[in-house]
Predict the structure.
Amino acid sequence: MGIGIVINDEFNPEMLKNFRQSHKLSQAEFARRVGLPRPSVTNYEAGKRVPTRKNVARIALAFDVSMRQFYTHFVKTDDDESLASDTATAIPAVPATPPTGGVPGHGGRGAPGGTL
């Protein structure tokens, strides 16, 4: 019998707070720098709200860092044993969309018949 594996990326509010504090910025200064309302930053750090990936990207771009450092990555098996956790480098990111150029073996034209 095979083992079912679930990969989960979870926003980590403590990582955001530690990052901001390591740059010696108040929540208001941080919010201005990344273009977000200060209450949003407060709620993200308190774990009351989870930022969209778009807002995490705004933060990462403002500081020229990877989005991955604000997420905890978990790999769990069917029996819920954690294989890896709390390390941003344990699991490589997988693109959400396939690369452009169509389906391999079809000359970049997509699926046979022109539809997928």
Summary: Helices lie at 13-22, 27-34, 38-46, 53-63.
